[in-house]
Every structure is written in structure tokens, then in C-alpha cells.
């Protein structure tokens, strides 16, 4: 065989291998869509990717929990499966809504939201990596939280 034909075959082989690699890589990326919640009114107001590649979501739920609306926190793995979900709140007709969540440097979470006990109540929770209230929670009665929906 002549040398230029071998070079052309080599170039075609490399191009085909490259295209196969790109195709396999593009379609091996993990994409998913899921619905979460129960049979009543549930909302997510904040979602963040966590250091383990999963996600943490915060909002409010009427489907789960003890009160009218409670804080609702979900921890998802990278494929969107629920690792754990927890609710925090009061019994009765009190409405609590988790507006923002961020992962902390130790792998836990800090959550900020509101409560309807009195006008302007703000609730801050410090959670460990499993969603348990770790070492503190603060309740600010009558605090003003105008349009603050993200912790930065």
C-alpha cells in the first residue's frame, strides 16, 4: 500500500475514535427530572449543589410535618434520589417557610426562613449533615426580613 493511503486511513481512524468518545461522553452525563412532595401544597424556594455532588433543597410543606406549613428540607444524591427529608415547625395553624439554605464548611447547613407567629418573625436553623438541629437555632420575633431570600 502506498504511504499516503495509510496516512489517510490513520486520520480517519483517529477521527472516528474521537467522535465515538465525544458521543459516549455527551450521553453518559447524568440528567434527570423528578417531582417531590405529597398530596397537599409543597414548595421549594432554595436549592444548592452540595460538596458531595448532591443537592439540598429548602421550602415549605403542608403534606408532611406537624403544622399548617412547616420548613421542609430535602437532601438528594447526585442522581436526584432522596437521601433524607425532614420538617421543622410548630403545631397548629402557624406557617413556617424556609427561604434559603446553604451548606457550611463542616458539611452541615444553615437555613433561614419566616414564621407567622407574629409579623416579621425570622427563624434560623443550624443543621448537621443529616438534617438534625446541631447546636443552635435562633428565633427573631418581629425582625424585618424584606426580600432576603439568599444567604451569601
Q: Secondary-structure map with pairings?
A:
Blueprint (H helix, E strand, L loop, with lengths): L2 H26 L13 E8 L5 E7 L5 E10 L5 E7 L3 E12 L5 E7 L5 E7 L5 E8 L12
Parallel strand pairs: 3-5
Antiparallel strand pairs: 1-2, 2-3, 3-4, 5-6, 6-7, 7-8
Q: Can you tell me about this structure?
A:
The structure is a single chain. By secondary structure, this protein is of the alpha+beta class. The chain has one helix and eight strands. The protein has one helix at 3-28; strands at 42-49, 55-61, 67-76, 82-88, 92-103, 109-115, 121-127, 133-140. Strands 1, 2, 3, 4, 5, 6, 7 and 8 form an eight-stranded mixed beta sheet that branches. A hairpin with a 5-residue loop joins β6 and β7 (121-127). It is elongated. The relative contact order is 0.13. Mean pLDDT is 82; it is low at 145-152.
| Helicity, as a percent range | 10-25%
Query: What is the radius of gyration computed over CA atoms, rounded to a whole number of angstroms?
Result: 24 Å
Sheet-strand content, in percent, reads 35-45%
Q: Label the overall shape.
A: elongated
Kindly name the structural category.
alpha+beta
Instruction: Write down how many β-strands occur, each being a DSSP E stretch of 2 or more residues.
Output: 8
**Mean pLDDT across every amino acid position:** 82
Largest sheet properties: 8 strands, mixed
Q: pLDDT below 50 for ≥5 consecutive residues: which ranges?
A: 145-152
Order of helices and strands: HEEEEEEEE
Q: In angstroms, what separates the terminal alpha carbons?
A: 66 Å
Helix count from the secondary structure assignment: 1
